[in-house]
Amino acid sequence: MRTPIIAGNWKMNMTGAQGAALVKALVPLVKDAKCEVVLCPPFTALFDVNNALEHTNIKLGAQNVHWEQKGAFTGEVSAEMLKALGVSYAIIGHSERRQYFGETDETVNSRAKAALKAGIIPIICVGESLSQREAGETDAFVSRQTVNALSSISQAEVEKLVIAYEPIWAIGTGRTASSEQANETIGVVRGAVRGLYGEETASKVRILYGGSMNPKNASALMAMDELDGGLIGGASLLAEDFAAVINF
Fold first, then answer.
1. Is 55 one of the annotated active-site residues of the chain?
2. Domain around 110
3. List 94, 96, 103, 128, catalytic entry
């Protein structure tokens, strides 16, 4: 059985103090959660949020990680630096990173390998645009992204990591893939893992849905057999909304 994960991606929201206050409100609401809970604040809030998470059942994640251990990479943060701040997970290859900051399948792969080397679990994002879905290219596109992201990563490491299917057309738009659409495409992603590493590994990899999951649709989405949780954006910025998703 795969343990579900509900991860909150705060994106460019929340100061350290604001994040700590949200954690204080969230903790009692999710103390009996049956899934793994992860919060991914901006870099500047990691320290305060990590302190607030002490002695709770919530884990800390980052929103990105660089592929090098150190060097002349102004504005970047290494896996070692994140690990020192208590980070357990790192989102890699989010569509907003791909769209606005030139992220490629190759850099996603490099970042994922750096995270794994440091003992941080990557949450690798894949997903298609609306035009690709309407053109019938979804399956081929997300399969290719998955294969490229996992290049030269060992079977043992793949079994530890997380993949998030996030249809770009459903992120921050209020539109959501139907439960059946999400389940079908996550099955395609799992099939790509199966093609590379076999059935046993594919059955262990946790694959999340990352397209506007909220309190209203969480139960229906989480009832799908291929879907192992959610990468939550807007709903993770309000303690009660995020708790409602967690306690689906």
1. no
2. 5-10+36-234
3. 94
